[in-house]
């Protein structure tokens, strides 16, 4: 969706006129498809989530498992940026519409678990890594203060995470 980049950059402060212009549409056409700002927020969130989950399977089919995980984690930063851009609008929507949360709830963690399990099975990442380790790291990245260098720093942190996952420790970390 053409609005994704604009919303990730400007948040929901982006005018609907600017969103329509970015999409190459008239404002009337935009309103026919998205009669409310909330409808646009929902569509952006659902589309980005579905694209991210699909990307996990696509990358896993084409790349070595550790590279698929690394690229998917970098791609997930776009998803996080969109969620950050949607900010309070998304938070309010998800509070009011738990059906949306239920519809997407397992996709992201499941993709992380599948990609990590494949990389562990391939022997390209440390065997003591757990999906929750990655999810907690991504939560920390998402929670970092906004700023012009957020995306660059987030990409760097994901690179450091992958370096740590690929490391071969002499002794595995205890589980739990």
Q: What does this 3D model show about the protein?
A:
- The protein is 76% helix and 0% strand.
- With 176 residues, the chain is mainly α.
- The chain has one domain (37-166): Tetracycline Repressor, domain 2.
- Helix 4 (37-62) runs antiparallel to helix 5 (65-96) and helix 5 (65-96) runs antiparallel to helix 7 (107-122).
Structural topology:
Blueprint lengths: L2 H8 L5 H8 L3 H7 L3 H26 L2 H32 L1 H7 L2 H16 L8 H13 L6 H17 L10
Helix pairs in contact: 1-5, 4-5, 4-7, 5-6, 5-7, 5-9, 7-8, 8-9
Short description:
With 176 residues, the chain is an all-alpha fold. Helices cover 76% and strands 0% of the residues. α5 runs antiparallel to α6 (98-104).
CATH topology assignment: Tetracycline Repressor, domain 2
Uncertain runs with pLDDT below 50, 5 residues or more?
none
**Count of the domains:** 1
- The separation of the N and C termini measures 41 Å
What keywords describe this structure?
76% helix, 176 residues, 0% strand, Tetracycline Repressor, domain 2, mainly alpha
């Amino acid at each position: 969706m053409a609005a994704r980049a604009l919303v990730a950059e400007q948040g929901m402060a982006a005018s609907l006129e600017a969103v329509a212009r970015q999409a190459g549409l008239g404002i009337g056409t935009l309103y026919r498809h998205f009669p409310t700002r909330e409808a646009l927020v929902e569509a952006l969130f659902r589309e980005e989530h579905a694209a991210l989950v699909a990307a996990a399977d696509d990358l896993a089919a084409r790349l070595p498992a550790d590279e698929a995980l690394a690229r998917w984690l970098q791609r997930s930063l776009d998803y996080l940026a969109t969620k950050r851009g949607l900010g309070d609008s998304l938070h309010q929507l998800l509070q009011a519409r738990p059906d949306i949360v239920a519809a997407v709830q397992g996709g992201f963690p499941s993709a992380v678990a599948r990609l990590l399990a494949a990389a562990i099975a391939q022997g390209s990442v440390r065997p003591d890594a757990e999906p929750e380790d990655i999810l907690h790291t991504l939560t920390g990245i998402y929670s970092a203060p906004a700023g012009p260098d957020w995306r660059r720093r987030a990409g760097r942190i994901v690179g450091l995470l992958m370096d740590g996952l690929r490391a071969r420790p002499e002794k595995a970390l205890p589980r739990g």
